[in-house]
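Entry 14. Structure prediction run on the chain below.
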Amino acid sequence: MYRDLDGTTYEVDLPLTSCVNAVTLREGLGLPSYIDLSHFPMKSAMIGVWAAVNAPKLHELYPNAFEKVVNKNPIPALLFGGAPVKIHCPSANAGGSLERPIKDTDFIVPKKQGIDFYKLLLKMDRAFGTQYKSFATANDRRFNAWRRGERYRLTTINDVTAEGLPKITVLDIFCDVIDLRHKVDVRDSFLRFKENLYTIGLENLIISKAQFIFDMPKEFAEELKKCGCDYRILPYPYYARDKIIVGMEEKDLKDVCAIFLDHEIGVGNERIDPQKMKRILDKDEKLALTVTLNLKNIVEKSDVLRKWMSRSEVLTVTCRVQELLKELPVVDKKWDKPWWNTAVETPVIE
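Output returned:
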């Protein structure tokens, strides 16, 4: 599967095996039946979440894989990224107007349980089959030492080809905070992991998607227009005149729209709580500005949404976004240079 810099090779026997039923685990977790498990990352996510929740008894259920107690308490391994949108949103699954494939899974866990979850994933193949094999490369180990428990990285199988061959990717495990363009603290979500369907919750999902932002030289605006991505240019008149600000990419825009399409604004389970979002954004005006710019852009560029949704669906989404924006903080401070973290990789726009 992989040859490391020092010559170490990581191999797996073929055919790959799986001795667990992801549908059964999904039902055991109490998750909706509409969740499409045909994408390998979703199936893998179900198994990872189930194993984390059952951490106190894995050594009894799978003694050949886990020699001792993984953790005395369930590990609230929460999903963020594309997988939790499929968990919360029928429209993001097979047959839905906003369905899209996902390439991997993203986990965030409490910092104090981070190392235990990391070690759990490294032993998944022994318990559940070689399809779920993970390993730590030399680069992974250096990354983990550098981050000192703030974040972990390993290499894992994220898909199986039609020929039965594994594809691998790097998996990041975040601890306490999603630290990308902005910091999104999700520690409160660990207390409600079942209520939030083993995800960071609707409000944090929206924020984690809408925190995406970067800038480009102004001359790239024409290039964005040529590839049909000019809808991503965020209107913000106070920024440097020789730059443009670019917001959410298509996959995140579709995910955010799915959340608004399938959930009303209000208080209660499976509703988008405006006061909860306001409390989060009130603590960080830079994050609040990025999130509100991206949300406003959904309303202002709503014609783009017709590529995926019907007219009535677009109206539902934009009305709910507008309803939410009325409750979110208005940021008066004006920045003419980046107010976000620039020390992260900027994607290439294709």
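The chain is about 35% helix and 15% strand.
Filed with the rest of this week's runs.
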